[in-house]
Write a structure and sequence with these properties.
The protein is built from six helices and six strands, in the order βββαβαβααααβ. By secondary structure, the protein is an alpha/beta fold. The chain has a single domain, classed as Ribonuclease H-like superfamily/Ribonuclease H (Nucleotidyltransferase, domain 5, 2-Layer Sandwich).
Length: 167
């Protein structure tokens, strides 16, 4: 199975394309969709949507996995993150993709063994697990971790822990 995983944000959306199953994963692509601050939020959301649509066209994944809504202190941040998440979800939905969401805590638990791991730990473990030459940027590492969690959910022994939810 090939999955497009997304760590949505208005200015720096992480993405990853992985293929495999719960035992072995191959990385095809990963990166960060960076939108300059000088571009208004509406333009940034359009760029995220277009970029995700282009990734779907290029890689033709079987499914999309996205980070679930997180709880933040600031309402402004929550609304902004929700908008970026919506832009990503719409791109997947327009392509007719099955979309699944995973909580950040569960993703971290799968990748590091600790649901409260920080971004450095996630990036380090992603690099180690997939034998990458370099540690990916944090947003891309988070997306890779989401993809690993999604592929891990195909393991019947771990599926109940991950609570795979279709959006």
């Amino acid at each position: 199975m090939k999955v497009l995983a997304i760590d949505p944000a208005v200015r720096n959306t992480g993405y990853a394309i992985l293929e495999g199953d719960h035992q072995q994963q191959i990385v095809h692509d990963f990166g960060v969709i960076s939108i300059p601050a000088k571009i208004p939020q509406s333009g940034a959301l359009a760029a995220v949507h277009t970029s995700i649509s282009n990734l779907i066209k290029k890689w033709q994944p079987d499914e999309v996995a996205v980070e679930d809504i997180i709880f933040v202190q600031s309402h402004r941040t929550a609304i902004s993150m929700g908008a970026a998440r919506a832009a990503s979800l719409i791109a997947g939905a327009q392509a007719g993709m099955k979309i699944y969401e995973y909580s950040p805590r569960k993703v971290k638990q799968v990748v590091t063994g600790n649901g409260a791991a920080d971004k450095k730990q996630v990036a380090f473990m992603v690099r180690a697990l997939l034998k990458l030459a370099e540690t990916p940027p944090h947003d891309a590492a988070d997306a890779i971790a989401i993809a690993i969690a999604h592929l891990t959910a195909s393991d019947p022994l771990k599926a109940s822990i991950l609570k795979r939810t279709q959006v």
